[in-house]
Amino acid sequence: MAALCESFTLCGLGPSGGVGLDGGLLALEPGPDRDHVLLTDRGRTATLFKVSDQKPLGCWSAKHGQIITCPVVCNFETREYIAVHDDKVLRIWKNTDVNLDKVFKATLSADVYRIHSLPKGGPVVLFKGGGVRTLDVLLEAPQQEIENIISDEVIKWSEAFMEHQQPVLIFATEKNGDSFVYVQKLKMNYLHKYKLERQELSKALSFTAYIKNQIITLLCLSSNDSVYKFLIPLQQNTEEEEQILPRSLLLNLSVSGSVLKGTSFVVLDKDHIAVLGSLATAGEESKECLTIWNTKFQTLQTSKELPLGTSGQIWCYEKKFFFTHGKVLTVVMYKCETSSLAAAVGKLKDSQAPDVSSFVDWNTLGDEELVISFQSQQSVALKPESRMTLRSKKNTVAKVQPDTLSVGQLLLNLKDASTTVFENELRQVMSKGQMPDFQATIGCVVTALINRCKTNPKYYPRNFLLQIVQNQDLSYSLCPDLMVVALEKKDLHLLQICLQRFPDIPEEITYACLKAFLSISDAYLQRIDLNLESVICYVDIEFNDKEVKTEIVENGFSTELEQDIWETKITKKLHGTSDGESCPVGPQKAALLNAVLRSAYSETFLLPHLKNLPAQQAVKEKSLTCAQHKVMLT
User: Fold this and answer.
1) Short-list 531, 347, 359, CA closest to 438
2) Fewer Cβ within 10 Å of end Cβ, the chain: N or C?
3) SS3 498
4) Closest C-alpha among 329, 298, 324 to residue 309
5) By the 8 A CB rule, do 376 and 355 touch?
6) Beta strands 320-325 and 315-317: pairing type?
7) Among 173, 471, 475, 143, which residue's Cα sits nearest to residue 341?
8) Residues 448/414, Cβ–Cβ less than 8 Å
9) Is 522 left (phi over 0), alpha (psi -120 to 50) or beta?
10) CA distance 459 to 419
């Protein structure tokens, strides 16, 4: 789930920074600190802004007659600034420099397309002919010859990453309507060219990419109102000079008869993208707007109309969008929560905080990240209708942080505590029901318990976990490792409760539970404490008076005798159906299988897993399903 929050104006724009595709900024880049951004206009000026104070910290201009042709970037290692004017003239200066005409200058032998500055890899220079150099190598001989590797192609977009402490550069080119992608590892002399699969009557408008596990995911915004995905492995053994990359549809930009004509987009996390464009509806005038889409569930999450128009550009840093709106540069804060099916269908309940729900996949966080995550969750939990100034908002967040920080810090401090202290402190955390983000806190508590189980195989707080799941409104996505560990520990009662209460369990986990339940013997299950309520409704509980023996009774019946007869009848009835057929399982296993049958799942996603079920177990499951249906019909 995602939402747009408070917005404010960072600065006004000059004559060249207006609306339209030829307006706007040359670029916006991160500054030397997290709260700083570098603005380069389409002329000769670069400005460093402190976002939270909405004020410039420095401004530098090339002299009249010169034009900055490559956006200014910050060298994070030296805290210097780098720019290129008139395509070939490189300038480097510090924060204390005022006159750009007097700072370091180097004239290069080829035109520069872009400079990418990596936090731990230094600046990388991409030339218009496709040649690449690190800044250090380039400064050793500024007039060195730069190879031309793309011939008649034109570079449209580029990005740089660090992967295993190695800088990786990717750039996209265009020629005669075809799009190509080049991937280069600078320190390994690796260069590979790909051709993107093309769809007739459409063209690529914008690109973005991210890298994970040696795979580059390239996303392309197409003119046919769709976003496509291309996967590029960094490990290539083929000798082909040019491979064709197949594409897959990630998202259609249409909802309820309206189509978004996107101009640019950014990736927010693995499930969300933001698209800037014009929303067109039949019979109505199109409106420019900022939108956030959930790619996992193919839904439009939120949007904001921009009546003054934009330049079609958008940037995203530190949970903030930056884009031109009319004659100003606007900043809009946003929040994105971990996507889960429960959140999408509105099944996650939080009686303590109905207005603001934050759902975090705590399993993805390390112990040191818990503190940071609590801070960020609280800081983005802002009402969309809020119109406070930024300074007053800072004060509000500052008041909230100590409480949220204490929770995360407590979990971090308890990492090496004894079991008794550890569990007692967690129970105290859970007792604070009125605290903000209570559901997220419970998810964090469960993850802390599971993490200790992983580090200490002998530790497993079965009763504590069962108490949490029974008494709290949780979901699988809040504590995804819980059921995995329960399967490892064969905690059948906990798995049963999770299946009954979690609305968003993946089919893969549902199948794992089914397979585990079928593989356990009825004799073993008779020693397990399970909830048999789901199978009692299938039993004819008319008692035979002949089985009742004379005993001391109270108020007309013996509680102990009543219980014995009840359990006897359940056992007998569950081993035989109403028409005399034999039931293949005992009452305990029937209760577990009922939990699977009654859980929320999609047959489309579950069937592929069921094909792997051993034949004997498959027959047993089919028999129980048929028996259940018969009893329900009678």
Assistant:
1) 359
2) C
3) helix
4) 324
5) no
6) antiparallel
7) 475
8) yes
9) alpha
10) 9
What amino acid occupies position 276?
L
Please give the single-letter amino acid code of residue 530.
Answer: L
What amino acid occupies position 156? K
Residue 281 token pair = 């509806």
Query: What is the per-residue pLDDT across 321-360, written as a single tens digit (0 to 9) for each?
Result: 999 999 899 999 999 876 655 555 554 544 333 333 333 4
Write the CB contacts of 32 (distance below 8 Å, at least 6 apart in sequence). 74, 76, 79, 95
- Bridge partner residues of 404 (DSSP): none
**Angle, to 10 degrees, between the axis of helix 615-633 and the axis of helix 587-597?**
80
Alpha helices in 414-504 (DSSP H): 419-430, 438-455, 462-471, 481-489, 492-501
Find out whether 311 and 24 touch, Cβ atoms under 8 Å. Answer: yes
Q: Which residues touch 146 (CB under 8 Å, ≥6 apart)?
A: 108, 109, 110, 127, 129, 131, 133
The string of pLDDT tens digits covering residues 445-496 is 888 888 888 888 888 998 889 888 888 778 887 788 899 999 998 899 999 9
3-state secondary structure of 160: strand
| Helical packing angle, 462-471 and 419-430, nearest 10° | 10
Q: What is the pTM of this model?
A: 0.57
pLDDT above 90 covers what percent of the chain? 39
Write the secondary structure of 221-251 as one string of H (helix), E (strand) and C (coil).
EECCCEEEEEEEECCCCCCCCEEEECCEEEE
**What is the C-alpha to C-alpha distance for residues 624 and 626, in angstroms, rounded to an integer?**
5
CA-based end-to-end distance of the chain: 43
pLDDT at 278 over 80: yes
Count of helix runs (H) and strand runs (E) in the chain: 16, 29
